[in-house]
Amino acid sequence: MLRTTLLLFAIGLLLVPGAGALAGESESGVYCGDLSAADCQILHDRQAAMDEVYGLSFGMRMDMTMTALSPGDVLQLNATGAGKVALSPEAASALLAADPADMSAQLAPLLTGFQGDISFSLTGESTGEALDMQLDLRMKDGVVLLGAAAMEALAGEAMTGLAWFGFDTGGAVDQVLELAGLDSALANDYETAAMEEAEASAKSIARLPDSQLNGAAVAVFETRLDVNQILSLMTLDSLLAMANPSQVDDAAAALSLAQSLEAREMSSREYIGLADSRTHRIELVMDMTIAGDFVDQPGMDTDLSLRMEMDLADFNQAFEVEIPEDAMVFPLAMMLQMQES
Predict the structure, then answer these.
(1) How many CA atoms lie less than 13 Å away from 179 in the CB half-sphere?
(2) Residue 39 — very low, low, confident or very high, per pLDDT cuts 50/70/90?
């Protein structure tokens, strides 16, 4: 169970930077901190350039170590991967036009207008057991497919005669959000003045010496976040105000997790082409501890350290994703209805 949970957590982390590169910063704007006007202009130019990017290819590397719950319960994971992802211009426009408080309106164009062909190779060790898994993922027109090799590794059972397994998410957006308790998570725009001040003071950005990537000059920006400063101001009332008021237990659990976290480092570096203003590399570093009290295991803390590097290229170059005819695809809406009955 632990191995599967940690692998799913790692897979989620692998997908975040690529999706973020396509999503851009249109909602939050450009953060410049104490940068000079010239350096800040580079970030504004980068946002304008990346707002015009609807497709790209990537290559990535990740190293993660997680010591979980009890002595000797350790996951060491190394991942390499590559892929192509794209969001149709129509879906991008719908996403930008969607009400920020309507998660359904935001998620629907991502599911229907997103396509991707991604492969990861994961190796490492979990509590003395070797890990070696190939993860192949395809997404198109709301269909999400996972290669059988990954299903076998996660489920621990052979998928004889099955190459691809997945779901058609069409018509299931609202049900998924409701099941996850996110149907009204953004219904309220609430943030205390103290929280806003903490977020502003907890974040910093600096321009590092310029570098070279594939023969091109790039500006390097490093952003650091003092997560502990932000988490220390979270209260049950503030979490409930930003979520569904009926989700008291979920908000309490989130608060408990926030109070149990100690983040030693949370930082990122972005490499921006000086000639084309596009992001060509993203690096993430995370180092934190989750106190054992959160899972009623006092003294058995969970340490997590992660380093990830992702290179971006082939901006807006067309590609096709094939959904195999023999893939086993289940309508997600039907599966959720069956679960409720």
Answers:
(1) 12
(2) very high
